[in-house]
Amino acid sequence: MIKRNKQILSVAQESPGYYDIKLLLPVFILVIIGIIMVYSASSVLALKKFGTDYFFLKKQAMFAAAGVIALVICRHFNYRYYKALAYPILIFSIILLLAIHIPGIGYTAGGSARWLHLGGFTIQPSEFARLAMIIYLAYSINKKQEDIKNFYVGFLPHVIVLAIFTLLLSLQPDFGSLIILCALTWTMLFVGGVRILYLASSVLPLLPVAYIYMLKEPYRLRRWISFWDPWQYCSDEGYQIVHSLMAFGTGGIWGTGIGNGYQKLYYLPEPHTDFILSVIGEELGLAGVVVIIILYAFILIRGISIARKTEEPFGALLATGITITIGMQACINMGVTLGLLPTKGLTLPFLSYGGTSLLINMAAVGILMNIGKSAHKNTNSRQV
Prior knowledge:
By secondary structure, this protein is mostly helical. The protein folds into two domains: about 20-75 and about 245-384, no CATH class; about 85-215. The protein is built from 13 helices and three strands, in the order H-H-H-H-E-E-E-H-H-H-H-H-H-H-H-H. It has helices at about 1-15, 20-50, 55-75, 80-100, 125-145, 150-170, 175-190, 195-215, 220-230, 240-250, 275-310, 315-335, 355-384, and strands at about 105-110, 110-120, 120-125. It has a three-stranded antiparallel sheet, covered by helices on one side. A hairpin with a 2-residue loop joins strand 1 (about 105-110) and strand 2. The longest helix has about 35 residues, at about 275-310.
């Protein structure tokens, strides 16, 4: 009976309509929690600014529906086709980043030019650029596998592409996305087999560049200083972190209840985007935050499992890049809201308000599922 049940499960997993429940379930739970908490965090702000407390709720729900469609499409789109699309996608992402600076198309908010107005929608090209970089690196590292330890083949070309993105992201500026992209590139090159000596030596020249970049704008230096003692700068640079910590402290173990948070009432800036976890901590308490962390852990464990079981290097690298990106973005956002990292403008995957982020992350999960299906099929073939 046990053997028969395993055979039935195996057949179901090889069927075209199969979806990886171990990956899909935590993602969907996070999206649902995100829709609820976006409404709770933004209702007062939306009512004052747009005359309806459902403004951000409706948009987030619409983005979630579009994300589900993107997930389904990518789940059924053979991931191997991305090999032929790697360079077109990369070039398209660069064009989008350049288009930000075109008057009438680019959109500036909070002193940063990070968005595009296209057809009534606002998109953030840096989110797409991240996925484009993952696909490019997976393809390029796989293609150059035999000479990956050669400096001029395995290391230099990828660093040049990263430098182009670094320049474009610095012009926005978007330091958070830049850190994610650099860490992602370094990790994928490491996994791909690039010499440690090249990777380690590449970090040293970045230190003076980062120092100059920080000194270029006084607020960046103040942000770093306030990171060490936000309470001393609670009226300016440490304001966000102080009120974020107050939100977590008020929530205690079980929270104040959904909708009963206090810090979102014009105290905590951008409560529905970068600091959505602070609202969750206040209204759902430590218990709610722990659930969120567990859900992310399930996603990361499943992503790592898919990468390890995928025999084809391109698929394994692609799965690794997607998993790393989701994990790093979640860890950095959580670290910022808890005062463990300096403030950066990064959303929390699947939870924060933001159409481009949600859409791209859902599409990435679909790609991961497609890779997982192929890996599982190959495993079953070997067993037979």
